Amino acid sequence: MYLYNKHIIKQTGGISLEIIISSNTSKPIYEQITMQIKAMIMSGELQTGNPIPSMRELAKSIHVSVITVQKAYEDLQRDGFIETTIGRGSFVSAQNKDFIQEEQQRKAEEHLQEAAEIGRTSGIPVEKLIELLKLFYQEEN
Question: How many alpha carbons lie under 13 Å from residue 90 in its C-beta half-sphere?
Fold first, then answer.
């Protein structure tokens, strides 16, 4: 059985965040929050300068501890995705495209490393993996 809670946090300015917390994953809640906010920023759903909810507001909306949200925000700030100013709140940082592309490339490398390991241990020729990658890359959703 797959269990998750979908939370839509509406903010002033018409911006809303949709956060899905899954209980069917080994990922801690703070990581789920971090990954989803990063994805919203990298996809352009959240733009530079957009406010994000306060830690208390988000924690209350998704029914988790403020400490959990604080850990997510600390990770987002450390990775350059958000800026927090005391008294003003947290906002999406000015991102440069190179940084975003580097983050996406890192994710792709993790998946490719896993695919290479599966191919190696299963005896799948590298040429076949390359062919599959090219097919998936050219495929449109």
Answer: 22
